[in-house]
Amino acid sequence: MRRARLTACSLVLGTAVVGCTNGDDTSPPPTDAVTTTSTSPPPDGNNRLTIGFLLPRADDSALGEGVNAAARQAVDQINEAGGVIGRRVRVVAADEGTSSADTQRGYQQLADASVDAVIGPTSSLTALSDLDTIVGDGVLACSPTASALALDEIPDEGLFFRTIPSDSLQAVAIAELAEGTGAQNASIVYVDDAYGRGLAQAVTEALQARSIAVSQMGVASVERNLTAEALSLLAGKGDVAIILGDDVRGPRLLTAMGDAIRDDPALPVPDVIVNDAMRQPDSPEVMRDLPGVLRTSLQGVSPMATPTLDDQPGGLFGTNAFDCVTTIALAAEQAQSDRPLAIAAEMQGVSSGGSVCRSYDTCRDLIAAGRNIDYEGPGGVLELDETGDSSRARFDVFGFDSNGIDESLQQRIFSSD
User: Fold this and answer.
1) I need a labelling partner for 386 at 20 to 30 A (CA). Which of 140, 229, 304, 404 fits?
2) What angle do CA 208, 210, 215 make, to 5 degrees?
3) Are 69 and 58 in contact (CB under 8 A)?
4) Is residue 354 a contact partner of residue 193, using CB atoms and an 8 Å limit?
5) What is the pLDDT of residues 210-224, one digit of tens each?
6) Domain coordinates in residue numbering, the chain
7) Under CATH, what is the fold of the domain 168-302?
8) What is the pTM of this model?
9) Which of the 8 DSSP states describes residue 25?
């Protein structure tokens, strides 16, 4: 367990994982001025929920635009419904930036404003480096996009939650896809670094739990020729080939497989499953130029990033950000407190095991009536487990068309149970 509970995201086969309001009765509220200090005491409860946005600037990226708009939409709906514990939710926003130093500066602005909870960080790297500061201040954090496996076990005082599925749940999704092919043997190729080894091990364990035998092959250098690995996947014993890669090195292995097939068209082509980081290759021509027999055997899984229903928040990972805000508000309403630890103690409970509801006002009314609730959100599936992670999540199963452009094949809900 990563914590004692009172509960884009990632990269593999390589490296990376990827305006303030004062809450007065006007919409939108004016901007809070904040200054930076060196330390922050734990927030004291005053029965007014204050949420900090530690997100990329809306005008800097599609991700920043999506999560900021959705989080503000959630706050607006909550305040229109009467707020939390009878008071309007106050919002303070800071720029997450692109480095740990940026994130630290942004968080200090929020801490100076005595926020009870933070939406963010979005980057797994900054979450890994800076989460200890946030939870060390006794502040609750909910990330809509930080999916790294390493966050599964990070010490967090029971104050860190994620509405995006962890890569450990993506590993389960990959294994279920493999099982669906009828495979009895699987071959995994991954980059031999800390992240690649962790994801490969998670996929291996999920496959073995389904009685699928596994062989692994790590790629230590990203520069060397990958022909041997390609031939191993094509001519080996695996009924299904699983490639855990990023947007550059994963497609390089697929290219090597394509070259081998052209050299020897008699080579058997297995089903191929890839992870989410390979959905947007560095160059779409790579997928376009694959032999058709290989490209059509290829599918992958990725957490749902864009809305699928008309009433869902728009933008990249907007639903996840919306759910972070609304779940925090409902947990505060259930606890009748804005104290972070009290809110954290109710986060799992309001997202599972009660009467299903999908909007703040409906859920709040059920709480007021003494009912247990199961907030599912506009995406229709949210269930936080005892570690604060999503135990069920909707994934997109994707492939590539003849132009090398990714296309959704179906949406599926996968569970860690």
Assistant:
1) 304
2) 35
3) yes
4) no
5) 999 999 999 876 667
6) 168-302
7) Rossmann fold (3.40.50)
8) 0.85
9) S
